[in-house]
């Protein structure tokens, strides 16, 4: 990505994009065509093979969508990071200190099966290819789930993914240390294969330029009686949105695909589902959605959408059709 491309004023691109601006809304609304024009001068630093490696199961994102949706978003995020750098330098001058700049934190939120993991991995790759911030790290809040033994002891194994299933103190401590500029911060590791925290293994984060935090509840407000929460330390947030009926269908389809792939691994926590016939598998997936993922979306995840800096809304085909950007 060239210095010339980076210098194009975003305000000019907005003027050419013809976004829909409702005076009563705190957001600027873009359709996909208008949003795509905001990144039209930026070269695509990604190949089809790279995209295939980071794409989640059931997410049919292609290079056209990367170019039209995620490339403009990476440009916008790059501008935010640069402005943050200028503000940091002004603060350093004002305070007369020499403290190093702390990482810029991006939060990615949304439902199970909506595509937030692909969004997070894709943004990590795109942002790392802007020359100003080559060190981009990604963590998921899955690592901060309580171990299964703790969930079982508390009787909340069936509420895994709900806010109370996370070690929120550990997550808050992690993000606080990141924003304090600590040279090395560690996080627990989670295995989707065994559906549990991996004992004695830690992910180490070494003061990146940008940290992307992806998870169901990263925009959750502080719990009752708490002074702070993780969202207080996020510099820019993205909520990946879609109609609940579409997300439910994507979840069931993904469950069927996993039944033919990962569930067949002898080490898989879900090994018992691999032998289900299609009809039984659909019933089981719909049951999980009705009792766990659907209620969690409606009660805890969806209410945080309005707290995001930007909302990516997907259509029934899993492609992003609308973008809502918070006004500044």
Quickly describe the structure.
With 328 residues, this protein is α/β, with parallel strands linked by helices. It has one domain: Rossmann fold (3-Layer(aba) Sandwich).
CATH architecture: 3-Layer(aba) Sandwich
- Please identify the top-level CATH class: Alpha Beta
Alpha-carbon distance between the two ends: 26 Å
Radius of gyration using CA atoms only: 20 Å
Number of domain units = 1
- Tell me the β content: 15-25%
List the keywords.
single chain; 328 residues; alpha/beta; Rossmann fold; eight-stranded mixed beta sheet; two-stranded antiparallel sheet; 10 helices; globular; disordered N terminus
Report on the architecture of this protein.
- The structure is a single chain.
- This protein is of the alpha/beta class and 328 residues long.
- It has one domain: P-loop containing nucleotide triphosphate hydrolases (Rossmann fold, 3-Layer(aba) Sandwich), CATH 3.40.50.
- The chain contains ten helices and ten strands.
- The strands form two sheets. The protein has an eight-stranded mixed β-sheet. Strands 5-6 form a two-stranded antiparallel ribbon.
- β1 and β2 form a beta hairpin.
- α5 packs across α6.
- The N terminus is likely disordered.
